[in-house]
Amino acid sequence: MGTKNIKLYGFGVVGQGFQDYLAKNENAERLHTIIVKNDSKQRKAVPSIIETTNEKTVLDKDMDVVVELISSAKEAYGLVAENLEIGKRVISANKKLIAENLADLIQLEKENNGTFLYEGAVCGSIPIIRVLNDLFANESINAVKGIFNGSSNYILSKLFNEEVSYNDALLEAQKLGFAEADPTSDVGGFDALYKLIIITAHAFGKILKPEQVLNIGIEGISKQDVEFAKQHGLKIKLIAKAELVGHQLTLSVLPTLISANNDLFTVENEFNGVVVEGKDIGSQFYKGKGAGSLPTGSVIYSDLKAIDRGYQYNYKKLANENYLVNNTNVISVILSTKDTYSLQDIEDEFVSLYPLDIYGKQFIGKISLENLAAIKFNLQKEKISILALENDNLIDELTLASVKEEVLV
Ligand SMILES: NC(=O)c1ccc[n+]([C@@H]2O[C@H](COP(=O)([O-])OP(=O)(O)OC[C@H]3O[C@@H](n4cnc5c(N)ncnc54)[C@H](OP(=O)(O)O)[C@@H]3O)[C@@H](O)[C@H]2O)c1
Predict the structure, then answer these.
(1) pTM summary value
(2) Whose CA is nearest to atom 4 of ligand 1?
(3) Is the CB of 77 under 6 A from ligand 1?
(4) DSSP symbol at 227
(5) Where does 128-288 sit in CATH, by number?
(6) Would you please indicate which residues are annotated as catalytic (active-site) residues?
(7) pLDDT in tens, 115-171
(8) In angstroms, what CA-CA distances link 275 with 68, 197, 267, 284?
(9) Is 6-117 a CATH 3.40.50.720 domain?
């Protein structure tokens, strides 16, 4: 393989991290061209090989490897798909693009004998895709759950550890570069959902579309929710989860009350955490930097080295497993509202719903994931917050505590 054989699209946070890794580990000369969008942007360093999208002089087909690290999923689709169509080896970190198009992209990869790797798209520096794809290809996985979005986790840590409002915590996350100017994808639970979709393909061999899975983000979390969690020694985390219930798959992204014996309890700030539970391997816990220039650049560089060795994902479980997805599972939730009137339109969707406090503002209930999905927009409109419980053991603890509080009052 000759030098000057890589074309890099995007030279932002991750693109620059990747270039740093390439430069310090081998020969940065391997990078033939870097394509960026904005002609007039001030750049920290301007490598002579930078071109803009308007003046692309080098054809992708003349390159060995194309590394796609641009911001837009829509634009990225065109360039990833076109390169896989001509059998190129392509690396991407674009979780939205991958989650929305995984089946098509795998087909293009196979039909044209290309390669498509994307470790950097899921939980930054935590090498979870290759762990699931390679090391646990023959293991029966029961569940994969975790904190997949560093921005939301940073905001939740701030709310718990400092007396700040949600908006101030979000502003700080944006200032530090953990959250985008438009934070919807992070705080709305979409970013975590995309990563969950990709993980599910490797852990369970099932490719789902993002719209098939319920995601509720952290925008509705109030000071009262945080106080409630603290009083009971719990934390609120945005948990993405894919698990087998019976022989059927259940997926969700939900703000969740977790207790101190949950491994994810210790994952703070911009860190990510992943718990993998398998039939024979038991429970394993991975924690690491979920984003950032060098942490993500590092795994993109590892993808490049894997490509140099001829590595491809085997997707073994896609061929072997065929799980049905079940959204009728019932979960336990705590619901908080400022006004009980606002519950009128949604209370029939619950299997059960009981007041948890004496003010009639907090309720504990059971609801199926599909019914929760059906009332998601009502909850947002009426500013009702929902917290899932990590498991039903918490119900006894919380209801007993509330009875004690009533007696004390
Ligand atoms: N940031 C993270 O920590 C992180 C972690 C994991 C995965 N990711 C994913 O990695 C990808 C890149 O993220 P980022 O944070 O590096 O983004 P970023 O800092 O906003 O940089 C995006 C880069 O893409 C360029 N660009 C945009 N549209 C382009 C186009 N059509 N053709 C060529 N270049 C184009 C931009 O050009 P200009 O410089 O001219 O504006 C910029 O250099 C995204 O898919 C993101 O979801 C990011």
Answers:
(1) 0.95
(2) 291
(3) no
(4) H
(5) 3.30.360.10
(6) 195
(7) 999 999 999 999 999 999 999 999 999 999 999 999 999 999 999 999 899 999 999
(8) 28, 15, 11, 6
(9) yes
